Amino acid sequence: MKESVIAKKFDQMCDMSPLIRRFLIRSWYQFLSTLDRETQMPFMNLGYAPLESEEEVELLEQDEPHRYCIQMYRHVVSAVDLRDLNVLEIGSGRGGGAAYITRTYPLRALTGIDIASRAIRFCRAHYHVEGLSFFQGDAEALPLGDSTFDAVINIESSFSYGHFDRFLNEVFRVLRPGGFLLMADYREKERMKDLRERLSRSNFTVLRERLINPQVLRALELDTARRTALIQRNVPGFLQGVLHDFAATKGTRMYNALKSGVVEYRSWTLQKPARSAIPDAIYTVSSGSCEKGNTASY
């Protein structure tokens, strides 16, 4: 497939500065919302296809067209029991993942946050699921209180942030002690090395990390026909090359970069440390002995 010159130029411009990258990617996602005013593209991730040692999930008929994107969500949340948890998705995009997770898992509630106002309007108009809500917000300055969520989902969103460390700090702030960051994203190999170093230096504990290029490539191979049909049906001809590269259909620059290993796709389960255990009793120290009391004095 012919490489998109526009897509290559877009990537070069994104590399100029964090502010330019944030502006361009935000504008791009706003534009994508104008291409699909229905729900033909409720998911934006590259997808995940289990290999032979993994089991495929059973899906409702309505979800089957989006199987590979849904399987990415299921892979990312698989390490954590979401039962009765208050969940936040940062970068909820078109809302398909948030809606699927809310109606499939017995969680308490799910809040989707996205910087693109059109995406939020789309989600509010199309999803009416009990416990699910959407708000506009910046991943680097979340409009949310401290220690309010038990788990944060972040899939193929962090690559667009101007300052990844600010995002990590915000996630750490809004998570309750012992809460989880469930994340998946891709980077060029050197940038992935930097990302992994940032995660290892953060206040989070890395519980699980997986390189999932084979599963992502398998999903792209199986889903290329559907993605191509969507692009041909919804995108003007002069922009179809850009959308093919964005969707990483088979033979595109992005697909080939994943296949060669120039781009790595990884998933993580990270945890905020639990608050130190509070003792059953507080002791007052007096005359060399310890006595139970309401305060501690030394």
Automatic annotation (TrEMBL):
Secreted is among the record's keywords: no
Pfam families, per database record: Methyltransf_11 (PF08241)
Designated name of the protein: Fatty-acid O-methyltransferase
Any one GO molecular function term: S-adenosylmethionine-dependent methyltransferase activity
Keyword terms of this UniProt record: Methyltransferase, Transferase
Database matches in Gene3D superfamilies: Vaccinia Virus protein VP39
Gene that this sequence comes from: mtf2
GO BP: methylation
InterPro entries in UniProt: Erg6_SMT_methyltransf (IPR050447), Methyltransf_11 (IPR013216), SAM-dependent_MTases_sf (IPR029063)
CDD domains per record: AdoMet_MTases (cd02440)
Domain of life according to the entry: Bacteria
Methyltransferase type domain sequence ranges: 88-182
Keyword Methyltransferase found: yes
SUPFAM superfamilies: S-adenosyl-L-methionine-dependent methyltransferases
Signal peptide: none
